[in-house]
Amino acid sequence: MDQTAAGGGARADEATAKTPVRFDTKIAVLLRDDLEPWQRLNVTAFVVSGLGTAAPEVIGEPYADADGTAYLPMFRQPVLVFEGTKETLSLAHGRALSRSLETAVFTSDLFGTGNDRDNRAAVRAVRRDQLDLVGMAVYGPRNAVNKILKGARMHP
User: Fold this and answer.
1) What are the beta bridge partners of residue 138?
2) Do the bridges between strand 25-32 and strand 133-141 make them parallel or antiparallel, or are there none, so unpaired?
């Protein structure tokens, strides 16, 4: 006997597949509003790259196409991109750290470096409250991330 005849299991599975997924967590990127378009893309790519290593639960299952070609897994949930002033970014950074959320930062100095070693050295050379932040990514409970982003607006 198939599951449909046994009680509608197939229909229930189909309905579940169409139900929107709502996450209790949020992945967000906050960019400084005075960046050039190429800088926005570069900063976003860099800051989100660290989240999967610090919070492996944000990574979904690997992908495959109909031919069986395998592709890398990606985030299991959307990444929301916001923008704000230098002051908004500084406040958000402080809020994220005070809540001990997973956070990645990108400073203006990193536009002048060309590798991971020099990037880390550039950040390490500046005190936390003196970092010239141009972007950050944060992951955590949705409500906490919303509070961290207070004053920011969705990226156009």
Assistant:
1) 28, 103
2) antiparallel
The upper half-sphere exposure of residue 104, i.e. CA atoms within 13 Å in the direction of its Cβ, equals 22
88 neighbors 152 (Cβ within 8 angstroms) = yes
Report the C-alpha gap between 103 and 53 in whole angstroms. 11
Residue that is written with structure tokens 């607006």 in the block: 153
Residue that the structure tokens 């800051």 belong to: 47
Q: Which residue has the tokens 């959320």?
A: 101
Q: What is the pTM of this model?
A: 0.84
Q: Assess whether pLDDT exceeds 90 at residue 14.
A: no
Separation of alpha carbons 148 and 145, rounded Å: 5
For tokens 């230098």, the residue is 86
* Tokens linked to 26: 């949020």
Whole-angstrom CA distances from 141 to 23, 61, 107, 126, 146 are 9, 21, 25, 29, 9
For residue 54, CA distances in Å to 7, 39, 49, 58, 111 come to: 42, 24, 10, 9, 24
Average pLDDT rounded to a whole number, residues 16-25 = 78
pLDDT value at 64 more than 70: yes
Alpha-carbon gap, residue 93 to 105, rounded angstroms: 8
What tokens does 78 get? 């959307």
Q: What is the pLDDT of residue 21?
A: 77
